[in-house]
Specification:
With 294 residues, this protein is α+β, with helices and mostly antiparallel strands. It has eight helices and 17 strands. Helices cover 19% and strands 31% of the residues. β1 and β2 form a beta hairpin.
């Protein structure tokens, strides 16, 4: 069955146009997704299946920018086997996609674009469910850039971290998702907060990984923040609701605190990458905790 989420959700931001494209569905263990938060609490917000997994998305953000199409994150891609997809609950069937067509590419096509049209790909980090679509399989079993005319952007520290794994991190970093980009000379490594093109900046939000970044898109006095995994779903807005996957959860806590403080003050639009049902929203603090604004 196709995953139960719209393939594309679009909205304006100033003079820009934003398109949230689902790169596929995903089902992961609810306990892992909510860390130390007891199931009796998180299950009130989102139901688990008979394997204790919750329905998630892999939302990417396409920005129609004057300098060309900018794509933020790329989902899990198509290079893994059936066992891998079952372990991580990857769902790649999308309504409107052609036979064997990846949802991300189907979404691009539905918007009238091709992979060759993308000029910039920004990775929040290089975990397989965020950077797997950076590359695609070749007939000889190798991998090549999915977006052949794009420059790819990531924090330099994240790339170095991804290429020097340990027992805790190795399962999340698959070299065929990022090494072919390096071989092709298409990476642009950045360090810290910086503007990538006018109106699009990256902001370090470490904790999930030490060099995780979120992406801010600003135009006409409006700002949208693509959160990545610092706040993967709207259910993770309360500060202590942090994934068990985060390598530095107390750092995540402070990244969230600073980011959500700015988001509320600036009335930012937030884009939730892994939320199956809420693509966009704004944040409010009710005196006790952060949550979605009405």
């Amino acid at each position: 069955m196709p995953f139960p989420m719209p393939l594309v959700e679009s909205r304006p931001l100033g003079r820009l146009r934003l398109h949230a494209i689902q790169a596929g569905g995903q089902r992961l263990d609810g306990g892992a997704m909510f860390g130390v938060v007891p199931k009796v609490l998180w299950s009130r917000r989102i139901a688990a299946d008979d394997r204790n997994r919750i329905q998630m998305g892999m939302r990417c953000l396409l920005v129609e920018h004057p300098d060309g199409l900018v794509l933020i994150d790329t989902g899990a891609g198509d290079k893994e086997d059936a066992k891998f997809y079952d372990i991580y609950g990857i769902e790649t069937d999308a309504q409107g996609a052609g036979p064997g067509e990846l949802p991300l590419l189907a979404g691009l096509r539905a918007l009238g674009h091709a992979p060759e049209d993308v000029r910039l790909v920004i990775s929040t980090h290089l975990h397989f469910d965020h950077a797997g679509g950076n590359t695609r399989r070749t007939p000889d079993g190798g991998a090549t850039a999915t977006f052949p005319n794009a420059t790819y952007v990531v924090q330099r520290g994240e790339y170095e971290y991804a290429t020097r794994t340990n027992e805790r991190t190795a399962a999340s970093y698959l070299r065929h998702n990022f090494e072919p980009i390096h071989v092709a000379g298409r990476w642009r490594f950045v360090e810290g907060a910086c503007e990538i093109v006018p109106g699009i900046t990256v902001r370090p939000t470490p904790g999930h990984t030490p060099w995780h970044q979120s992406v801010l898109v600003t135009d006409g006095g409006e700002t949208c923040c693509f959160l990545g995994d610092v706040v993967p779903t709207a259910h993770h807005l309360p500060l202590p609701w942090i994934m068990g996957y985060d390598v530095e959860p107390l750092v995540t806590l402070e990244s969230k605190r600073a980011l959500l403080t700015d988001a509320e003050a600036g009335e930012w639009l937030l884009c939730f990458e892994h939320d199956a049902h809420t693509g966009f929203g704004r944040v409010r603090h009710d005196g006790k905790a952060y949550g979605l604004a009405p």
